[in-house]
């Protein structure tokens, strides 16, 4: 295991944000209408073309915010009959070296997730699985709306369906995500400690080596 030097997340919050429920219900009542950029439409078209070239009937998995793509490779290996979209907005991260060649049932795509999620939903596409691994926690109290569960795009997750899994090294982030997913799914979602000796992403590997506790929540939005 690599030596870790990641700082622990510091925040003035000591629990889930008190405004989360009101913010989420406001987003549910008022659909997000920001214009979609053409490069994200092109990204979805390229992603779907890659899936169709492999197997047009393959169930889809989205690795949202895939970074350098380690997790995309791992997910594709775990689900060899699915096709995996690894999506990140950073060309630099996507172009970095990989531990293995990209599997045939996966593709890395540069896109803004805010648009990419909405385009998937507009196309009527359903996901079999939906991973959100170690997103930016935006730990300042005033940054709630920048966290995915507080963002105006979040209700689109319900339209995409699938088995959703979110992981973070900040317990409060996962507690908030669990509360938000409970609203979307209509069933209780729990934040739970997560331990592994086989990290899926560089962040997960570094956090474990730094002695961080890991947390996750999961729900089927099918």
Describe the fold and architecture.
Strand 1 (60-64), helix 3 and strand 2 (83-88) form a beta-alpha-beta unit. The protein has 222 residues and is of the alpha/beta class. It has 8 helices and 7 strands; from the N terminus they run ααβαβαβαβαβαβαβ. The N and C termini lie far apart (36 Å). The chain has helices spanning 20-29, 38-54, 70-78, 91-95, 113-122, 156-160, 171-185, 202-209; strands at 60-64, 83-88, 106-110, 129-133, 163-168, 192-194, 214-220. The model has no long low-confidence stretch (mean pLDDT 94).
Tags for this entry?
about 220 residues; alpha/beta; seven-stranded mixed beta sheet; 8 helices; globular
Question: SSE layout and pairings?
Answer:
Elements: H1 20-29, H2 38-54, E1 60-64, H3 70-78, E2 83-88, H4 91-95, E3 106-110, H5 113-122, E4 129-133, H6 156-160, E5 163-168, H7 171-185, E6 192-194, H8 202-209, E7 214-220
Parallel strand pairs: 1-2, 1-4, 2-3, 4-5
Antiparallel strand pairs: 5-7, 6-7
Helix pairs in contact: 2-5
Secondary-structure element string: HHEHEHEHEHEHEHE
Mean pLDDT, all residues:
94
The helical percent reads: 25-40%
Radius of gyration: 17 Å
Shape: globular
Strand content: 15-25%
Strand order of the largest sheet: 3-2-1-4-5-7-6
Q: How does the major sheet shape up?
A: 7 strands, mixed
Helices and strands: which structural class? alpha/beta
Number of DSSP strand runs: 7
Please tally the helical runs, counting DSSP H or I stretches of 4 or more residues: 8
For the terminal residues, how far apart are their CA atoms? 36 Å
Low-confidence stretches: none
